[in-house]
Write a structure and sequence with these properties.
By secondary structure, the chain is mostly beta strands. The chain has two helices and 35 strands. The protein has two domains: 1-15 and 35-103 and 289-411, no CATH class; 106-270, 6 Propeller (Neuraminidase). The chain is globular. The two termini are 40 Å apart.
């Protein structure tokens, strides 16, 4: 089954200087095993508003008919400058009104996996390739590219050819960055099929040189007695020294020294109300205004469609609040407990829900226990990105290329 990330897990970490305080402490030494947090979802309340809560200004990215893919990532560095990408093409705006297609195109056997900009000019791009081989899962490589002119031209910085698949790239400033993903390991044929191990590269000079730190991450997982058969999925820089790393299968690692050492601080397993373990995927780290971290993750496929927000209860246990048939793909915190989220609305579509899916923007004032839909689109699309670009200014980008600019009053 193909799963897509749509669950929000709130881990409620507190930062104090260079130290994390967590509700579940990480192991002090490599001899201890970090316990699994089993997530059992409880249905969240959805309240329909009596009237629309904001007016949106709309612009559109014209997707080329000759290339594959829908918009699957967008980023803004301010109210005017932003980028969006499909698996093949890049788009940019300099006035938040008109979008133009950049000259870069991924080769026919490759796709654009990630991009990140630190300002209007400097950015990085990941292009991955998988070629057909006699054994499934092999033939991977990734290229890391950089731009200094807002994406008009790109220069290759690294060509990672040894079965490397990079999923995310992120920088805290013009020098310090991290790229994470996996390496596909090909054991002898009598020992099983190929499998993935977590992998990462870091730079402290803007990508002029990239240093592999995969073994450091694997050592951290081994020390907590957790398999390194996983993939780095998302990065969040907390400061110039502190980094959080989310894996595909629900582990969170931290570094306090720019990636020189790592420690695992959480691991998750999603369990449905009937007791069966679901194939939950994990997608993105999100922080609230007090530096408490949440994780967007979940499933979208044969098992069903849902979005969750999991928080710690007063007794220090985890509670998972579930949005049935309203998957969410991005979120931003307005305060400690107030959230805006974007995704897709399938609740009123019935048996024909796939044909009737529309984009939705949601508001919660209680950390995800209850939600109010504050905007629904009138066409079939999914809002895959939600960005806060000013004190009260937001952009929502859909996979079909529609861009909403709106303001929402804080409570």
């Amino acid at each position: 089954m193909t799963c897509k990330s749509i669950l929000i897990l709130s881990l409620l970490f507190s930062l104090s200087g260079c130290e994390f305080r967590t509700e579940r402490t990480a192991p002090e030494t490599g001899s201890q095993t970090l316990p699994v947090s089993v997530l059992k979802p409880i249905e969240a309340v959805v309240t329909e508003p009596k009237k629309p809560l904001f007016q949106a200004k709309e612009t559109r990215i014209v997707l080329p008919a000759d290339r594959d893919g829908l918009i699957h990532r967008a980023q803004f560095v301010n109210e005017q400058k932003g980028w969006a990408m499909t698996s093949k093409s890049l788009f940019s705006t300099s006035d938040a009104t008109s979008w133009h297609r950049l000259p870069f195109e991924a080769p026919i056997d490759s796709r654009i996996a990630s991009l990140f900009f630190v300002d209007e000019a400097r950015g990085w791009l990941v292009v991955t390739k998988q070629i057909d081989t006699e054994r499934y899962g092999l033939g991977n490589s990734s290229r890391l590219l950089a731009t200094r002119d807002g994406g008009r031209t790109w220069q290759e910085q690294a060509d990672l050819t040894q079965e490397v698949r990079i999923n995310d790239i992120c920088f805290i400033d013009a020098n310090h960055g991290l790229a994470v993903g996996s390496k596909t390991i090909d054991p002898p044929r009598d020992q099983g099929p190929p499998y993935e191990e977590i992998a990462a590269w870091k730079t402290d000079n803007g990508g002029e040189a990239w240093t592999e730190i995969s073994d450091i991450l694997k050592t951290a997982l081994d020390g907590a007695k957790i398999s390194s058969n996983d993939s780095g999925w998302n990065i969040h820089w907390l400061s110039s020294t502190q980094i959080l790393l989310l894996t595909k299968y629900g582990k969170i690692l931290k570094s306090l020294d720019q990636g020189a050492t790592w420690q695992i601080i959480a691991r998750f397993e999603d369990e449905r109300p009937d007791g069966q373990v679901s194939s939950t995927g994990y997608y993105k780290l999100v922080l609230n205004t007090e530096k408490n971290v949440s994780v967007i993750a979940g499933a979208l496929g044969d098992e069903g469609y849902w979005g969750n927000l999991v928080v710690t209860s007063e007794d220090k246990s985890w509670a998972s609040y579930e949005l049935t048939l309203i998957p969410i793909f991005d979120a931003t915190f307005l305060s400690k407990d107030e959230i805006l989220a974007s995704g897709m609305d399938m609740k009123s579509a019935g048996e024909k829900r796939k044909a009737a899916t529309v984009g939705v923007i949601l508001h919660s004032q209680d950390h995800g226990r209850s939600w109010t839909p504050i905007y629904r689109s009138s066409v079939q699309e999914n809002f895959i990105s939600l960005s806060r670009v000013g004190n009260n200014t937001f952009y929502a980008v859909s996979d079909m290329g529609r861009v909403l600019m709106f303001s929402f009053p804080q409570v």
